Amino acid sequence: MIERYYFSYESGILRYDGQTIRVTTKEAELRSLSSCGGCNDPRGVWTIRITPAGVQNLGHRFLRPEFKWTDDLLSAIEQGQDASELASPAVLAVLRATLSRLNPADNLTSGKESTEPEKARFHLGMLAKLTVLQRSPHGGKFILASDEATLCLTYTLRSGKPFFTNLRSQQN
Question: For the chain, does the N or the C end have fewer beta carbons within 10 angstroms?
């Protein structure tokens, strides 16, 4: 089995318990958030099981899934998808306003005869820090800071998936 993965020099740890290999990774498959090359976050684990029948790729997971959840929400907004299953109307309104303030030139209409705006591109800048304030089986709260903005997000879990209920945003 051959697969490409990313890691940071500081976190490049491999663990093997005789049956399972766990590789500490840097999960670089985010669509709307970016991280510097040498930064550890967003950290993840790639799990591989070795059995007499062969090798099984059990996949990747984020150690702090809040990175992926935020990226999914931002990507849905950026792509013009219905994000009502991801966040409340109030959260979506605050997030759209914040992103529009941070990226005003990207949200203008194209000047063509069409009145449809071009696809927006949102940039929060480089990830700085993610701080989990609260986490329970029912929901939680975290702060995601980037070069451009700090987002404090509150969520509930619905069938194991986050639904954002509150957002406080601050431009940096």
Answer: N
Q: What is the pLDDT of residues 125-162, one digit of tens each?
A: 778 889 999 999 999 999 999 888 899 999 999 999 99
Q: Does residue 121 lie in a domain region?
A: yes
- Strands 127-135 and 54-62, by their bridges, are unpaired
pLDDT digits (tens, 9 = 90+) for 105-129: 554 443 444 344 444 456 677 788 8
Q: Tokens 């491999």 identify what position? A: 14
Do 37 and 83 reside in the same domain of the chain? no
Q: Do residues 29 and 80 share a domain?
A: no
Query: Is 4 inside a domain boundary?
Result: no
